[in-house]
Amino acid sequence: MTGPLERTDPVVRIAVDLNRCQGYAQCAFLAPDVFAMHGEEALLYAPEADEEQREQLARAVAACPVQAILVDAVDVPAEAVSGAR
């Protein structure tokens, strides 16, 4: 079993401009493992996702009518993978 600091795959970082988001829910439909609607207007999302979800995320970003979603891939630092300091 590996812990969260033992990941070797890149992490996808997600940011949503919640002031811009209008609750159209296209992202929740296209990437339900990352985005979810809470009620009719509030968006909940995971700020990081696995690289394997990148295709779903790309579709969600493209489908957002107000372009409120930003996705960026980042590498996990070597210290986090090996436990070195």
UniProtKB/TrEMBL annotation:
User: Does Transcription appear among the keywords?
Assistant: no
Q: Name one Pfam family in it.
A: Fer4_13
> Superkingdom of this entry's organism?
Bacteria
Which cofactors does it use? [3Fe-4S] cluster
PANTHER family xref list: FERREDOXIN (PTHR36923:SF3)
Q: What does this protein do?
A: Ferredoxins are iron-sulfur proteins that transfer electrons in a wide variety of metabolic reactions.
The name under which this protein is listed is Ferredoxin
Give the organism, scientific name: Streptomyces osmaniensis
